[in-house]
């Protein structure tokens, strides 16, 4: 038997959670055809990877990205694949580009995900050839994809296409019965085309871009539960899933997700749900103790299938001035972000009456969790024209000047030019004890990288590698909190199964999506800060990660596309390795060799 690729003598993890074994893998026609404890015949094999001392894992599955525009401009999605990610999901948080026209899609997407609007418009104007889901799936599949792609239909996209963006974002407007049935039919059409399910967003923090309806909340936030139930009924019939984010200002409404997920103990089909987000938030440090047990209890009592997404790394954010989504929590913050002109924004930030209103909302006690801890003593300046301020927190500056921390923040921005001041803070997952606990929590699954979004604010492209580093470091220190095979399972098959995508395992008969990891390379470099200029975004410098010491090779559909820090020639341009994975499209043969 001849092979296209042989991966020799690696410590093989199959993705199921089973203990690893030293094995040699034989790959032919994009499929794992041999998993052998003895050497394979390497005659005429053009690519033999010596994986001795390395780990061979299924490619990671990133279930929460916002690559919807980027995939059109750079189908290789290099910033994920270089970290061993071989399958990415699009269409999260109610946002997709399936039904909406270019202008609506850009207004829905750009401000929410902090991707410059002109590039979203340009990507869609140049590449959007579809007007519905079947055409969309075909168009994405015809791109020279690097990783495999699967996607959900966004509720905001769907709602805007039926009601129009104006009506869809006007309070008090509800769809007629006919419009609701049209929405249900369009969702069913998307599921028939192979999309995995529906994504929503209940939290009104996310705002529209553009000039027509700027700063209105996303369409899905205006939906009633009558509308949501009608759409969930379609998911239930098809056996598909829902991704969404409950409104943290109305925590009690989260119960509706559990009720709608429930199969009523066999009386109807249950609906798998993936909600945002489970984290050890600084704004509510006690919540981490109760969320997991509470979710497990409700699932058990109601017979629901609800999990919360968890990013298993410290949630570190950066901001240029006030350009950070957390400021949308304040009316005054939204007012500033509403202004695109820098002069007008600086003028507003200096206005005494504006500051009075901002301080009032900033100091107001809030019941329930918030995105930001609101502690300017925990917000450190890293770039500023006034070099004497670099390294200081805004709180420290306020103490030195004897003023309110918010005034110190706004003073520094106005005095130095708002976008010239770059600062950082960690909003969640800063306590290792609870981060380790969440990594094992059965009511969560790994996700929420937001890859492709918030280009200047954060970079979690390599969160799977970072989790493996934490697991290994704990084992070496004699305080293990989970096995490596459990971590691998959580990053691969577990999330793939929940979302209903055929990925995440590396057994005989499986598609040959894999990553080779050097455990010795799981070092401090995977956690270092990096920026990289993005040609297709006009040279914008985006935050990225680098795991080149750890990720030796990444393969998609049997093709080794990244090796030793370099992508293969033609990758994402003339060479296509990935494909669109339609829901339920693959039946795999796991007959042992």
UniProtKB/TrEMBL annotation:
<dbReference type="GO" id="GO:0016812">
    <property type="term" value="F:hydrolase activity, acting on carbon-nitrogen (but not peptide) bonds, in cyclic amides"/>
</dbReference>
<feature type="domain" description="Amidohydrolase 3">
    <location>
        <begin position="47"/>
        <end position="189"/>
    </location>
</feature>
<keyword id="KW-0378">Hydrolase</keyword>
<dbReference type="Pfam" id="PF07969">
    <property type="entry name" value="Amidohydro_3"/>
</dbReference>
<protein>
    <submittedName>
        <fullName>D-amino acid aminohydrolase</fullName>
    </submittedName>
</protein>
<dbReference type="InterPro" id="IPR032466">
    <property type="entry name" value="Metal_Hydrolase"/>
</dbReference>
<dbReference type="InterPro" id="IPR011059">
    <property type="entry name" value="Metal-dep_hydrolase_composite"/>
</dbReference>
<dbReference type="GO" id="GO:0005829">
    <property type="term" value="C:cytosol"/>
</dbReference>
<dbReference type="InterPro" id="IPR050378">
    <property type="entry name" value="Metallo-dep_Hydrolases_sf"/>
</dbReference>
<dbReference type="InterPro" id="IPR013108">
    <property type="entry name" value="Amidohydro_3"/>
</dbReference>
